[in-house]
């Protein structure tokens, strides 16, 4: 390893001297540039739920979602980011204002007076950090939101809805999120609503022995539902999806143990089912008064979809529907041991400290340029690492995530660091990466750091 002969790397010297940023021939205060970030958000409640359903992309397929956001970006003439969770919808625009962003959304949806909350600049950043950390979730500290957020950022970047420079804004959100989670120990809290409902599922199944179980949808949440049922010793599991052939490819080992069918087949006749778990995404309920679930016996329907996939009228009067309101109530009950007021008050203090650190970094535009370069450089290297893997086992997502982790470590060093420490970070990763490939990655990154360390200034680095 190169770290054995060269101990110290100092890249911070490239960003020690602050300078104004040049945009279109004019110089601007970097903090003023930050104020051009606009966020409009809506937290769902009984009064705005009908509006929220018109704004969220949760019920759209990938093509519909891309078309929706591409048209909005073209209308806005700037980068756009949309993020939907189980309890809110938000849109973030760059180089625009909240008023203009809300106006374009009204024009785009045909709905006026949208009840958005507006956040600009650093307040927009703080709001995202709070949402992604789980402090604003139904279940305080919920882990699932951060994973959804990172996937959303990657998807928007992949489809050119945000550019490389604006993507770095979200990297700061992720970094701050890690600090908050570590401070509050959120890595030990509920992973998802499905886990929250496991005790309910156990109660339903305890007197039934082997039950007839149906899972609607086989995405990430659907697969977790199947795994939970199997952990509860359930063997009679049917998965209903739009395309069983495509669904099997998502998790072939899990699918091999299941009975799979299309919605057309399932809806065409009456079935005997004890438990139905819905994880499907739809802009409006799939099952309602004119299209009730094809089961007539007493059963329990657990709906984890948002917006809801099963309306109250979608089940028979002698059947039980456990929807989002159930999980919200359960979440509050689960949180009795938490001192919510104290936790939120402390979070404001911690987030304030993190914000100060973020603004300090933001005031030095050289630092921002250097960070963008490092992330871009590691992303490019990740493509080469992926090319060295088994072509039948694509690791593109793993390599990209690993490259961002390495880049984040490099960029968060406050001074000189030992190249040996960086190599050990790589070699000791918990990610599922071949050991020989890890040695190649560690060597590549080490050599790259040496090359950068030999540069005279930031201009030479970026050149």
Map the helices and strands.
Elements: E1 8-9, E2 21-23, E3 26-28, H1 30-34, E4 38-43, H2 49-55, H3 62-76, E5 80-84, E6 88-93, H4 98-109, E7 117-120, H5 121-133, H6 144-158, H7 164-184, H8 193-196, H9 198-205, E8 213-216, H10 220-231, E9 237-241, H11 244-250, H12 252-255, E10 259-262, H13 263-267, E11 275-278, E12 300-303, E13 320-322, H14 324-334, H15 340-362, H16 365-387, H17 396-411, E14 417-418, H18 419-427, H19 435-453, H20 458-462
Parallel strand pairs: 8-9, 8-11, 9-10, 11-12, 12-13
Antiparallel strand pairs: 1-14, 2-3, 4-6, 4-7, 5-6
Helix pairs in contact: 3-4, 5-7, 6-7, 7-15, 16-17, 18-19
Highlighted features:
20 helices; 3 domains; about 475 residues; four-stranded antiparallel sheet; Rossmann fold; six-stranded parallel sheet; alpha/beta; about 10% strand
Rounded to an integer in angstroms, the radius of gyration calculated over CA atoms is 24 Å
What's the CATH H-level homologous superfamily of the largest domain?
Glutamyl-tRNA reductase, N-terminal domain
| Shape, principal axes of CA atoms | globular
- Strand neighbour order, sheet with most strands: 10-9-8-11-12-13
**Structural class of the helix and strand makeup?**
alpha/beta
CATH-level-2 architecture of the largest domain: 2-Layer Sandwich
Low-confidence stretches: 18-29, 334-340
What is the average of the pLDDT values? 81
Q: N-to-C terminal Cα separation, in Å? A: 27 Å
What is the strand content? 5-15%
Number of strands: 14
Q: How many structural domains? A: 3
Largest sheet report = 6 strands, parallel
So how many helices? 20
Tell me the helix content: 40-55%
CATH class identity of the largest domain:
Alpha Beta
Q: From the 3D structure, determine the CATH topology of the largest domain.
A: Beta Polymerase, domain 2
């Amino acid at each position: 390893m190169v770290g054995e002969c060269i101990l110290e790397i100092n890249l911070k010297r490239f960003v020690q001297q602050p300078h104004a940023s040049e945009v279109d021939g004019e110089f601007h205060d970097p903090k003023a540039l930050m104020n051009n970030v606009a966020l409009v958000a809506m937290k769902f409640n009984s009064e705005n739920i009908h509006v929220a359903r018109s704004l969220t992309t949760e019920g759209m397929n990938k093509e519909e979602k891309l078309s929706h956001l591409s048209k909005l970006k073209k209308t806005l003439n700037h980068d756009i980011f949309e993020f939907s969770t189980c309890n809110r919808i938000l849109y973030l625009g760059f180089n625009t204002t909240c008023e203009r962003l809300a106006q374009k959304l009204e024009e785009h949806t045909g709905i006026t007076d949208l009840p958005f909350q507006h956040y600009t600049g650093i307040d927009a950043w703080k709001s995202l950090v709070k949402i992604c950390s789980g402090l604003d979730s139904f279940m305080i500290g919920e882990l699932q939101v951060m994973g959804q957020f990172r996937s959303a950022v990657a998807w928007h970047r992949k489809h050119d809805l945000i550019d490389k420079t604006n993507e770095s804004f979200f990297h700061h959100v992720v970094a701050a999120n890690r600090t908050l989670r570590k401070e509050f120990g959120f890595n030990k809290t509920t992973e998802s609503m499905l886990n929250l409902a496991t005790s309910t599922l156990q109660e339903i199944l305890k007197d039934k022995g082997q039950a007839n179980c149906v899972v609607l949808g086989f995405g990430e949440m659907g697969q977790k539902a199947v795994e939970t049922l199997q952990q509860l010793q359930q063997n009679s599991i049917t998965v209903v999806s739009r395309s069983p052939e495509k669904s099997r490819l998502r998790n072939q080992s899990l699918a091999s143990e299941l009975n799979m069918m299309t919605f057309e087949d399932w809806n065409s006749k009456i079935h005997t089912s004890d438990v139905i778990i819905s994880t499907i995404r739809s802009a409006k309920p799939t099952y309602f008064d004119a299209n009730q679930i094809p089961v007539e016996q007493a059963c329990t329907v657990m709906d984890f979809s948002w917006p809801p996939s099963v309306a109250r009228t979608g089940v028979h009067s002698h059947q039980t529907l456990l929807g989002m309101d159930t999980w919200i109530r359960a979440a509050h009950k689960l949180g009795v041991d938490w001192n919510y007021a104290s936790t939120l008050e402390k979070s404001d203090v911690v987030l304030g400290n993190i914000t100060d650190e973020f603004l300090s970094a933001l005031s030095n535009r050289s630092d921002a340029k250097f960070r963008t370069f490092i992330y871009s450089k590691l992303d490019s290297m990740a493509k080469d690492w992926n090319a060295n893997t088994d072509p039948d086992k694509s690791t593109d997502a793993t390599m990209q995530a690993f490259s961002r982790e390495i880049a984040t470590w490099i960029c968060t060093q406050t001074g000189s660091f030992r190249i040996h420490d960086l190599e050990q970070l790589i070699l000791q990763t918990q990610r599922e990466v071949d050991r020989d490939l890890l040695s190649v990655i560690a060597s590549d990154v080490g050599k790259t750091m040496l090359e950068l360390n030999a540069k005279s200034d930031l201009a030479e680095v970026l050149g």
